[in-house]
Amino acid sequence: MANALTGLNAVSRAADVVSSNVANAMTEGYGRRDIELSSHQVGRTGSGVAVDGVSRYYDPVTTGERRIADGDVALEDVRAEFYDTFTKAMGQPDEADSVAGRITGLETALIEAASRPDSEARLTTVLDAATELTSQIKTAADSLKDIRMDADKQIGKAVDFLQSSLQQVVDLNVAIQKQVSQGYDPNALMDQRQTLVDQISEIIPVKEIQKNNGMISLYTSGGAVLVDSKAATIEFTATPTISPDMTVENGALSGLTINGQLVSTDTEKGAIAGGKLAGLFEVRDKLVPDAQVQLDALARDLIERFETTDADPTLGIGAAGLFTDGGSALDPLVEEGLSSRISVNALVNPDQGGDLWKIRDGLGAISEGDQGDATILNSLADALQKTRIASSGSLTSIERSALGFASDIYSLGKTNQLKAEADLTFATARQESLHSIELENGVDTDNEMQKLLVIEQAYGANAKVIQTIQALMDQLMGI
């Protein structure tokens, strides 16, 4: 009777484990359960079956690799999104409303005005084309500013979530340790903790170290301790408004500290290498500033092309040409943010008190000249088409026209975008492959159903033993 009762208890627990596995077959973070049984011994005599506990399947190697892949996907996704946004802001060179398209529009307007220098309508078209070009450059610069500020904001949110999640891991560690020491089943809490660590790994890829009584420690791939006996203190201060000159180095932007120590945010070798957080820091501190340098270099190139006496012989020494730095001549020492300040010279804009004819006769002209003279208009068109080496930026190896410069900036961004998307595709494929391996080692419903059949048979057999004993007892009592 005692043997049969222990058998019923064992199969009852086994049925509970199987039902839990089947119910959670699609649950993320759920570890497959297996019941652990052993022969029960009383003295020298076997006494049924003992339920030793319920084990939770966990493959630390595969899960660790998958978590690194999760971080890689998040990192490449941040990069690809940045390049996609920037190239859209620049626009494809063959689109009329792109930066390159606006340069082509200005070039066309100058050539058409040169064919009819007496036409006020064509001079107006030149002014409109120049204004649209500066507006498009400013729009691209504003896009970079918005991207940088959004990255800074997302860093703040990610750090807040990270700090909260690390504390939850510590709390679950304590709860699991208590469950283990008291002999209770801690597997449900371990499932919760695994899901939490998976979420952390998207922000910062972590390595999990098993400790006594079911507890764990978390370390970044760069060696920083996130969870040990307590959670690390991670701090970051978001900046509401960011300008191009603001950096971590000059103290205008916040870096990341772990337990009060400023850490490197390099995506390859930093303390938080790989993952969304490192990607956001890369966007804020490297990708956007690099793109800003290129855009500022383009704005400077445009200003310089029209600030020479070759383009406009009437210009005085130090006078601004068709394009200005916020209304003034270019100051090469203050190039940061130039793409946000570039504007058309007010001297040619009637709405700002200027004279439209100065486009044809020169910005330094005192009075209107021969309406049929297209010399300066041709010089302005030549200045735009002339190939020259840019004074700044990274594209200073070869001579380019203004259109070629803008097109090459777009091409460089597009090349980086395609590379980031290719890296994202590779990282995603690796992530999916590792996730599939995890699922293969997870709950197999077909196998669980087979176990359920065995459980049903075992339950019936133990019940039959008890039923037989009952019948024998009834017979004995009837004698």
From TrEMBL:
<dbReference type="Pfam" id="PF22638">
    <property type="entry name" value="FlgK_D1"/>
</dbReference>
<keyword id="KW-0969">Cilium</keyword>
<dbReference type="Pfam" id="PF00460">
    <property type="entry name" value="Flg_bb_rod"/>
</dbReference>
<keyword id="KW-0964">Secreted</keyword>
<feature type="domain" description="Flagellar hook-associated protein FlgK helical">
    <location>
        <begin position="95"/>
        <end position="309"/>
    </location>
</feature>
<keyword id="KW-0975">Bacterial flagellum</keyword>
<dbReference type="GO" id="GO:0044780">
    <property type="term" value="P:bacterial-type flagellum assembly"/>
</dbReference>
<dbReference type="GO" id="GO:0009425">
    <property type="term" value="C:bacterial-type flagellum basal body"/>
</dbReference>
<dbReference type="InterPro" id="IPR010930">
    <property type="entry name" value="Flg_bb/hook_C_dom"/>
</dbReference>
<dbReference type="GO" id="GO:0005198">
    <property type="term" value="F:structural molecule activity"/>
</dbReference>
<dbReference type="InterPro" id="IPR001444">
    <property type="entry name" value="Flag_bb_rod_N"/>
</dbReference>
<dbReference type="GO" id="GO:0005576">
    <property type="term" value="C:extracellular region"/>
</dbReference>
<dbReference type="InterPro" id="IPR002371">
    <property type="entry name" value="FlgK"/>
</dbReference>
<protein>
    <recommendedName>
        <fullName>Flagellar hook-associated protein 1</fullName>
    </recommendedName>
</protein>
<comment type="similarity">
    <text>Belongs to the flagella basal body rod proteins family.</text>
</comment>
<dbReference type="InterPro" id="IPR053927">
    <property type="entry name" value="FlgK_helical"/>
</dbReference>
<dbReference type="Pfam" id="PF06429">
    <property type="entry name" value="Flg_bbr_C"/>
</dbReference>
<feature type="domain" description="Flagellar basal-body/hook protein C-terminal">
    <location>
        <begin position="442"/>
        <end position="477"/>
    </location>
</feature>
<keyword id="KW-0282">Flagellum</keyword>
<dbReference type="GO" id="GO:0009424">
    <property type="term" value="C:bacterial-type flagellum hook"/>
</dbReference>
<feature type="domain" description="Flagellar basal body rod protein N-terminal">
    <location>
        <begin position="2"/>
        <end position="30"/>
    </location>
</feature>
<keyword id="KW-0966">Cell projection</keyword>
